């Protein structure tokens, strides 16, 4: 299990960096003034220069991706779906909240934290339910085929 988690972390890290870069491109395009916004302006203030802020954000994006990659191994255990979901949500939340806060991807206030977790839980639930529905549909199809052959 440890080897699988490490392998998934190593795959997740570059995926996290790639997604972070894609997100900054989409944000820059949506602003529409021809400027590339690699990081939020507050992050530049926090780290002194734009390149420092970009390097820290790149590293944190890799950590973010590694956390998601490593945590995905939970879904291959023999635990109950409830236990897997709760543990996965806790690990992902514990790994991503500090990064989102440090990178200023959220407002630094009580309302900002509440809004962050509200959006996070909503997105998590949508993804979880879509994955659950997809798997349930596949299982039902397999069961139907087995019953036809019996």
What tags apply to this protein structure?
mainly alpha; single chain; 0% strand
Percentage of residues in strands: under 5%
Summing up helix and strand content along with how strands pair, one would put the structural category as: mainly alpha
Radius of gyration: 19 Å
Specify the overall morphology: elongated
Integer average pLDDT: 94
**What is the tally of beta strands?**
0
State the distance separating the first and last CA atoms.
36 Å
Number of domains: 2
Strand count, sense and barrel status of the largest sheet are: none
Low-confidence stretches: none
Overall helicity: over 70%
Topology as a string of helices (H) and strands (E): HHHHH
Treating each run of at least 4 consecutive H or I residues as one helix, how many helices? Answer: 5
What does the model show?
By secondary structure, the protein is mostly helical. It folds into two domains: about 1-105, no CATH class; about 110-150. It has five helices and no strands. Helix 1 (about 1-30) packs across helix 3 (about 50-70) and helix 4 runs antiparallel to helix 5 (about 110-150). The mean pLDDT is about 95.
């Amino acid at each position: 299990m440890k080897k699988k988690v490490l392998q998934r972390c190593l795959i997740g890290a570059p995926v996290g960096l790639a997604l972070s870069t894609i997100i900054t491109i989409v944000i820059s395009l949506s602003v529409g003034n021809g400027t590339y916004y690699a990081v939020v302006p507050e992050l530049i203030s926090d780290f002194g220069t734009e390149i420092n802020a970009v390097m820290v954000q790149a590293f944190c994006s890799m950590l973010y991706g590694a956390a998601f990659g490593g945590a995905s191994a939970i879904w291959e255990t023999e635990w109950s779906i409830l236990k897997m979901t709760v543990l996965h949500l806790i690990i992902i939340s514990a790994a991503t909240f500090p990064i989102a806060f440090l990178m200023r991807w959220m407002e630094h206030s009580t309302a900002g934290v509440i809004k962050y977790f509200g959006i996070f839980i909503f997105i998590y639930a949508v993804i979880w339910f879509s994955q659950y529905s997809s798997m349930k549909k596949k299982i039902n199809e397999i069961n139907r085929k087995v019953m036809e052959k019996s």
